[in-house]
Fold this protein.
Amino acid sequence: MKLDLNSVSTRDAHADDVPYLNNLLREVINIYVEQTWSNPKDLETFYIKNTLHYDGVLIFQKDKKDIGFVRLEQRHDTIFLDQLHLAPAYQRQGIGSEIISAVQAFATTKGQPISLVALRVNPACRLYEHLGFVKKRENDARYCMEWRP
């Protein structure tokens, strides 16, 4: 998949990127996982279920340095935004908004909605809502959100 971005470049992830993907996932989301589940067993279960592979992953680069990634999955008639993470030094600079907008543009060309699941305590939920995602379902830990073109 190709995303049209101005502030970062992209490259397809490869097998040797898997440690980077999983380390960045833990670095970025650990604070929210710990706020959601305090039991160490529950924390490890979360990370086991969210262990990443490189299929469907685009890595973002700025000045030839890996700064984050997105994992998208085609599911029947929707695009599932499975993961989107930026290294902390690159957050709050508009890069995440640009990436989501590019995914929305891609979804529009396909005529498909985007769905995602986010931890309720993750402040990215506010960004998703700002960019037009709506909460479709929720439980104690997560929001299921959707955007339609």
